[in-house]
């Protein structure tokens, strides 16, 4: 068997086998079958596979169409639904290398494109161009995931827009160079909104995306929270010491926080990750209320804790102890 390549020598790495949708992703058997290129060997950029992860069939189908047909795919949904992780878990089954970039306010155009760096060569000081994340990714079989796409700053977004053209070539003006994408380069994005900005007050910092940006995405898929039975499978796989009744009550509480967040009653919600953390805390402290307080309640605003306590009482039929805040 050939040696698995490292991230530095991926440029010559190519998909070397085909898998079918129904065989590799049985969750998608309700859809028409098609073939997807994949890699027989994994590089160090391939995400670690999580056997307990539950793939959403429709979201997986959209992501796999991106891998199979080089479609630009955006996955939209509320935070905590596992959008980025979902793309990574699909890539893990295909042994497809991934690079995830979070488009927060700290990432700059130079981070993405590159910049001139001073280096010492043969005892002399020289200026050398250091490629940014986008040129590096474009030249390799990378699934580039642009996380929090609707939070990107305008100058950064116009850099990305060049890659979303049909041929996806990138022009480095400072280098008088045009980069042609690797045949196995793929691009994905995740967003909390669909380019409409913070219209409902839930996502401060998101930007309005112009129609030209949104129009370049071939597929926009929605990812919601898992159905309770699927989320319970994950929770019990991660914390098998929990009983079915306990895990069911925990998930019911999580869903109440999600509805409260959507209605504007809460400023935060419980994701699947928070549920798992709650279960793991319970394993340590052997106290469900204490574990819940440390995993979620202490993240809530003081004014919201009474509502969360009401949710807890509704699901567990027991009062949640709230520490009284001192007043000056």
Automatic annotation (TrEMBL):
Stored PANTHER family: MAGNESIUM-CHELATASE SUBUNIT CHLD, MOXR FAMILY PROTEIN
Every ATPase dynein-related AAA domain range: 73-196
Similarity comment text for this entry: Belongs to the CbbQ/NirQ/NorQ/GpvN family.
Coiled-coil regions, chain positions: none
Residue ranges occupied by any CbbQ/NirQ/NorQ C-terminal domain in the UniProt entry: 231-300
InterPro entries: ATPase_dyneun-rel_AAA (IPR011704), CbbQ/NirQ/NorQ/GpvN (IPR050764), CbbQ_C (IPR013615), P-loop_NTPase (IPR027417)
UniProt superkingdom: Bacteria
Key words, A-Z: ATP-binding, Nucleotide-binding
GO MF term set: ATP binding; ATP hydrolysis activity
Name assigned to this protein: Cobaltochelatase subunit CobS
Pfam families referenced in this protein's UniProt entry, alphabetically: AAA_5 (PF07728), CbbQ_C (PF08406)
Organism of origin: Polynucleobacter antarcticus
């Amino acid at each position: 068997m050939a040696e698995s390549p490292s991230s530095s020598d991926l440029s010559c790495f190519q998909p070397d086998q085909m898998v079918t949708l129904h065989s590799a992703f049985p969750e998608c058997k309700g859809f028409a079958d098609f073939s997807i290129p994949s890699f027989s060997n994994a590089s160090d950029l391939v995400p670690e596979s999580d056997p307990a992860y539950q793939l959403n069939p429709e979201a997986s189908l959209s992501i796999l169409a991106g891998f199979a047909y080089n479609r630009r795919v955006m996955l939209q949904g509320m935070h905590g639904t596992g959008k980025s992780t979902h793309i990574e878990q699909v890539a893990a089954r295909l042994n497809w290398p991934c690079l995830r970039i979070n488009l927060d306010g700290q990432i700059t155009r130079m981070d993405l494109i590159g910049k001139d760096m001073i280096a010492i060569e043969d005892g002399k000081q020289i200026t050398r161009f250091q490629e940014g994340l986008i040129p590096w990714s474009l030249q390799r079989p990378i699934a580039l995931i642009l996380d929090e796409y609707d939070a990107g700053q305008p100058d950064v977004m116009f850099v990305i827009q060049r890659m979303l053209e049909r041929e996806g070539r990138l022009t480095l003006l400072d280098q008088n160079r045009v980069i042609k994408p690797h045949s196995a380069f793929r691009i994905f994005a995740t967003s909390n909104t669909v380019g409409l900005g913070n219209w409902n007050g839930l996502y401060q910092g998101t930007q309005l995306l112009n129609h030209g940006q949104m129009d370049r995405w071939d597929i926009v898929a929605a990812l919601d929270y898992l159905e309770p039975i699927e989320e319970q499978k994950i929770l019990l796989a991660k914390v098998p010491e929990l009983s079915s009744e306990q895990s069911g009550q925990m998930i019911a509480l999580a869903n109440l926080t999600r509805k409260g967040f959507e209605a504007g009653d809460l400023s935060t919600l419980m994701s699947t990750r928070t549920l798992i953390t709650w279960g793991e805390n319970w394993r340590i402290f052997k106290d469900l209320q204490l574990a819940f307080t440390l995993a979620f309640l202490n993240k809530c605003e003081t004014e919201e804790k009474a509502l969360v306590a009401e949710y807890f009482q509704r699901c567990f039929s027991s009062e949640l102890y709230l520490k009284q805040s001192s007043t000056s």
